[in-house]
Specification:
The chain has 529 residues and is mostly helical. Helix content is 72%, strand content 1%. It contains 20 helices and two strands. Helix 4 crosses helix 6 and helix 12 packs antiparallel against helix 19. The longest helix is centred in the N-terminal third of the chain and has 36 residues. Its main location: membrane.
C-alpha cells in the first residue's frame, strides 16, 4: 500500500470509510448510517429540550424576583403556598428589577458562550467531540435539574440553586450545542457534501424549535403546572445523553488529536522562544489563553506570492454583522406587531410557526437542491481539482450572500407592511434566508486544513456571539425609542446592516486552503468528475 493512501490533505475528511454507509450491518447498527444522519437526532433533541421550557422560564424568573423582593421588603405579603399573585409582581419596583434581571441574564449568556467556545475547542481537540457533547448535555441536565429542585427548597437554598442554574445554562446554550454539532459534521463529511449536510442538520434543529414552542406553551397552559415542561425537557436531555454515550461514534480520531496537540505544543514553544519564558510573559500567555482560538484568524502569508490572506478576517466581520442584524430581528418583529397592530399571542405564534416551517423546508430541501443543481454550472468545462474547489467555494459565498439579501428584504418589508397578509409575506422571506448560517460555516471550514477547523470555527463563533449579545441591546433600544414615532426605523437599520454584512463577502478573493491546494490535486482528481 502506497504512502499516498494514508496521506490526509486539507480537503480530505477526517474519517475515511466511516463517512459511507455500510449495508452489511443490521439496520440498528450505527455503522450502517453516515455521520450526518447519526448526529441529527442529537441536534434535534438539543434544540427541542433547550427551547421547550423557554417561555415558562421567563415566568419562573419573574416569580423568583418577585418572591425575593418581598422577602427582603415585606415578607408578610408572601402567600404561605402557591405562586406569587400577579398584583404583587406587577408592582413597578418588581417589574424594574425583573427587567434588569433579564438583561443581566442575556449578558451572562453571551459571556458564558464566549468562554464555552474556547474551553470546548480545547477540550474536544484533546478528548474528542463525543466527550464534548456529553459534557454540554450534562450541563444542560444540571441546569434544568437545579431549576426544578429550587422550587422545593427554602428561599436561601433556592437562590443558590438558581445561581447554579444560571451558570450551567450560560455555558450550554443552543449556540454552543450547534457549534459542537458543526464540528462533528465538518470532521466526518467530505467537502463535496459538507454544505448540504450542514444545511440538513440545521433544518432538523429548526424543526425541533418549532415543535417546542407549540408543545411547551400548550403543556403549561392546559396542565396548570409550570414544572411539567421542565420535567419533559430534562427527560429528553437524559435520552439524548444516553444516545450520544452508547450510539454516536467519535468523529475526531485519537491520531488526529495527538497530531493536533503536537502542533500546538510546537506553536507554544516557538512563541515562548520569541517572547521569552519569564514570569511576565508566561502570565500574559495564561491570561490570553481563553482567547486563544482568535489567533486562528490571523492573516497568513502565501508562500508562493508573499500576499496576506485576509479571508478569515472577512469571515469574522461578516459573522459579527450577520448575528448583530439577525439575532433579535424576529423578536423585534413580534414586539412591533403586538405594540402597533395589537396582534394577539395566537397571531404572533402563527407568524413564528410560518417562518419555522419555511426555514425547515429551505434548509432540508431547497439548499441541498440548489447546491446540487448549481454546482455543475459553476464548474468550468476543462477544470482542474483546484478549479472545482474554488467553484464550490464561490457557490457557497453566493448562497450566503443571497440568504442575507432575503433577510434584509424581509426586515424592511415587515416594517412597511400594513396588515397581516403583508407581515406573512415578509416573514416567509425571512425563512428563505435560513441557509445563511450553515453555508457560512461551510465557507469557514473550507478556509483551513481539517486539524485547524475546530479552532477556526470557535473563533468565528466567539466573534459572532458578541454580535448576538449586542443585538438585543442596540436594536431593542432603537425600537423602544422610536416605537411611538417611527416604529419602522429599526427594520430599515436592520436591513442596512444585513446588506452590509452580505456585501462584505465580496471581499473574499482568496481560494480555500490556498497554501497547499496544489498538493491535494492528485488525491482529488477523480472525486469531482
Amino acid at each position: 500500500m502506497s504512502s499516498s493512501e494514508h496521506e490526509t490533505t486539507e480537503t480530505s475528511p477526517l474519517l475515511g470509510a466511516q463517512t459511507h454507509t455500510d449495508e452489511n450491518h443490521a439496520w440498528y447498527s450505527p455503522k450502517r448510517y453516515p455521520p450526518a444522519v447519526l448526529i441529527t437526532p442529537v441536534a434535534l433533541a438539543f434544540r427541542l429540550a433547550s427551547t421547550l421550557p423557554s417561555t415558562t422560564t421567563i415566568y419562573i424568573v419573574q416569580q423568583v424576583v418577585c418572591r425575593q423582593y418581598y422577602l427582603a421588603n415585606d415578607p408578610d405579603r408572601i402567600p404561605p403556598a402557591g405562586p406569587m399573585p400577579d398584583e404583587l409582581c406587577d408592582a413597578p419596583s418588581v417589574q424594574k428589577i425583573f427587567s434588569a434581571s433579564m438583561t443581566v441574564l442575556t449578558v451572562l449568556t453571551g459571556v458564558g458562550s464566549l468562554i464555552a467556545y474556547s474551553v470546548l475547542n480545547h477540550f474536544t481537540s484533546r478528548y474528542g467531540r463525543k466527550p464534548g457533547l456529553l459534557l454540554t448535555i450534562g450541563l444542560q441536565i444540571l441546569s434544568v435539574s437545579s431549576l426544578i429542585t429550587s422550587t422545593y427548597v427554602p428561599p436561601m437554598v433556592e437562590l443558590a440553586l438558581l445561581i447554579l442554574w444560571i451558570l450551567a445554562e450560560c455555558v450550554s446554550t443552543l449556540s454552543v450545542g450547534a457549534f459542537l454539532v458543526n464540528l462533528y459534521v465538518v470532521d466526518s463529511i467530505s467537502e463535496t457534501t459538507r454544505t448540504a449536510a450542514l444545511s440538513s442538520v440545521y433544518g432538523w434543529t429548526v424543526l425541533g424549535g418549532a415543535i417546542s414552542f407549540s408543545v411547551g406553551g400548550t403543556l403549561t397552559t392546559r396542565s396548570h403546572n409550570v414544572l411539567l415542561v421542565f420535567w419533559l425537557a430534562v427527560s429528553i436531555m437524559i435520552v439524548n445523553f444516553l444516545y450520544v454515550l452508547f450510539v454516536l461514534p467519535e468523529s475526531f480520531s485519537e491520531e488526529k488529536r495527538l497530531q493536533l496537540q503536537k502542533e500546538r505544543a510546537e506553536e507554544r514553544a516557538k512563541r515562548l522562544n520569541q517572547t521569552g519564558s519569564n514570569f511576565v510573559n508566561r502570565l500574559q500567555h495564561a491570561l490570553a489563553s481563553p482567547f486563544e482560538p482568535l489567533q486562528a484568524l490571523k492573516p497568513t502569508v502565501d508562500t508562493k506570492t508573499g500576499k496576506r490572506n485576509w479571508r478569515l478576517i472577512v469571515c469574522a466581520i461578516h459573522g459579527f454583522l450577520a448575528e448583530f442584524g439577525t439575532y433579535s430581528a424576529v423578536t423585534n418583529m413580534i414586539t412591533y406587531s403586538t405594540a402597533v397592530f395589537n396582534y394577539k399571542p395566537a397571531t404572533t405564534g402563527y407568524l413564528l410557526t410560518v417562518t419555522s416551517l419555511v426555514s425547515v423546508g429551505v434548509l432540508t430541501v431547497l439548499i441541498p437542491a440548489v447546491v446540487h443543481v448549481l454546482r455543475p454550472l459553476y464548474r468550468r468545462r476543462q477544470s482542474t481539482p483546484r478549479d472545482n474547489l474554488v467553484s464550490r467555494d464561490r457557490l457557497d459565498i453566493h448562497v450566503t450572500m443571497g440568504s442575507l439579501v432575503f433577510e434584509a428584504a424581509s426586515s424592511i418589508a415587515y416594517g412597511q407592511a400594513t396588515n397581516l397578509a403583508g407581515h406573512v409575506v415578509a416573514i416567509v422571506l425571512w425563512g428563505f434566508g435560513a441557509g445563511r448560517s450553515p453555508v457560512f460555516r461551510s465557507i469557514v471550514a473550507a478556509s483551513v486544513e481539517p486539524l485547524k477547523q475546530g479552532r477556526t470555527l470557535a473563533a468565528i463563533e466567539m466573534l459572532s456571539s458578541i454580535g448576538s449579545s449586542l443585538s438585543p441591546v442596540m436594536m431593542g433600544s432603537i425600537l423602544t425609542a422610536t416605537i411611538s414615532t417611527t416604529p419602522s426605523l429599526v427594520f430599515w437599520v436592520n436591513g442596512i446592516i444585513l446588506l452590509i454584512g452580505s456585501s462584505v463577502l465580496f471581499l473574499i478573493q482568496e481560494p480555500p486552503q490556498f497554501e497547499t491546494i496544489e498538493s491535494s490535486e492528485g488525491t482529488r482528481a477523480g472525486e469531482d468528475h
